[in-house]
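Notebook entry, structure prediction.
Reason for the run: the old model in the group folder had no record of what sequence produced it. Starting over properly, with the input documented here first.
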Amino acid sequence: MNTLTVPSRQVLLTTVSSDSHTWNLVFLRLLLEEAGYQVHNLGPCVPDDLVLSSITALRPDALVVSTVNGHGRMDGARLIRRIRTEPSTRYIPAIIGGRLGIHGDAGKGISAELLDAGFDTVCDERTDPRTLPGLLLALGTRAELGKGAA
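New structure, fully documented this time:
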């Protein structure tokens, strides 16, 4: 049983456009719901435009991008750059995690690239998924950051 209790918060859960895996999304949805989050799961192979329009429409408190196909480095960086350039989405707290590169995250280089691109937190495939609710809680929300611009 998870002992972390969070106020009711909405999370938009997605993967990158090239990733067709779903079990990671099912697992994370259950993990986050158990921790008290309301989760909107966009499913596999989500186009960047759908992620942006979903953030605008749903106004979630945070974005979680999970990937296992090894293309998180490229697709994730492209996605977060688009998110950070749009006024309606730029301030959403965003985490990416999973298998970020086809050869792993050699020397934390991929993590640094994704942080530089605009993610607030990067978790690689060695990160214990049970830390995700606490990481989200630590990030806060758009509204808490005073950046809830429409």
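Summary: The chain has one domain: 9-139.
The old model has been moved to the deprecated folder.
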